[in-house]
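Table S5 (text form). Sequence records supplied for joint modeling of the two-component complex.
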Amino acid sequence: MSLRMPGSDGKPYDPGFGLEAYAQFFAEDYYLSALPHTIWLGVITTALCLVLGYPLALHIATASRRWRGILYGIVLSPLLVGIVIRSYGWTILLGNTGVINKTLKDLGIIARPLKLMYNDFGVVLALAHVFLPFMVLPLLAALQGIDPAIGQAARSLGASRLTVFRRVTFPVSMPGVQSGCILVFVLAISSYVTPALIGGMRVKTTTILVVDALTDQFLWPFGSAMAFVLAVSAGLVVVAFALLTRMKWK
Amino acid sequence: MRLAEALLAIFRVLVYIFLLAPIAVVVLASFNAGNFLTFPPQGLSLRWFVTFLQNDVFIDAIVYSAVLAALATAVSLVIGTMAALYYVRHAGREAETVRVLLLLPLILPEILTAIALLFFFYEIGVGLEHKIALFTGHVLMTLPFVFLNVTTSLQGSDEACELAARSLGASRMKAFRRITLPLAAPGLATGGVFAFIISFDTFGISFILKGTGSAPLPIQLYDYLRFNFTPEAAAVSTVSILFTLVAVVAADRLFGRKG
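The corresponding structure-token record, covering 509 residues in total, follows.
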């Protein structure tokens, strides 16, 4: 579709093929500049998810049976709640008159509301929240497969806790880290609602531009071209990440 | 070491709070008595639930989403399990290809899958009529979750169990029913729950393929939130949260225990 000719007379596309859509995409800075920004948001979100998620997964994997159920529930609970609702929750928290700003103001810490929403900060925070379970679950699956005896053996042979983590736990959990990161990254760059609601129209991502081009403006070839470029870029990042982690850990 | 562990514990608690806060805030806001979304609420009231219950748009959307999710999950479970069985037990050299193909809807951005389906159904002349495109999209989106979970369960189990059952005289069907299926049950349960939730909450696919007429809940809510800030949306959200919670608990009771 991205190779079709741009449509005329309100039709989504015209017969015939060409590279017009790609030419248009690469010519217009407004659209082109959104791409690295989108990838960047995805990378930051993924890193944040890994940092937040790993301690949780480790904690749950080693928790007692009863606690494990409860903690598992907490981690899964955001999944039970639609992405629209979770983004909505963040708007209540982060808005100019939202919970955080109001509390800080009442405490006299700030005079004017902090800008927490309608910028990259809010979007990344909300995205990390939305996709954290997708990081924790693969990590947990990988960690639970580890026999605790291995760690105990290493410890009894004189390894410190940190060494056990570095030399045993982390390498063994690597498949989980890999799948978790890839999952979160792809979900993050392709999400529409969260950047749209939290970012207002001020944070533009390629995904938002694609959807607008397709559903509002009926520019099918152009929208497809953008989507395809985004998918290829994302694919490259994922492949690079997979190669990098494999080289290091295998 | 002590200090590091204490810091780690605090960090963990903060992350748990981070996970729960936005949801808690929505639920609390739904009991707000005031006209605007403020926090803490200006008094407690159920008025926004009443408003919501009188609003057919949201009621229809919830029912619609639930039916759609249930149907998509059922179809996904059947196809996904078959695919997982083939992948784990029978696929030889092409195993990796099968896996990648099945995970494509997950690997590709959801929006891209939606666009592909939009073009496909437009091209074959069906368009967005009869919600066929929407349903196909939901099955497609949920399939990888079933496939992944069932595959994990099957890989964790030993094929020798089936072979043993077969060599002891069990028919293929019986070996499947008595050995394979129970072994895969945890994967089926997790995959099924995942599938249901994904379908119930998915936005991209529904947004692009919704067509005309009634739309799934996330779409209605999003449309509403773009222009309104009343706590009614919070009430709708609270009900929706309860709904999925019930579905998950029910699924867990039905097949979760076997694992």
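Note: Residues 39 and 190 of chain A are 10 Å apart (CA to CA).
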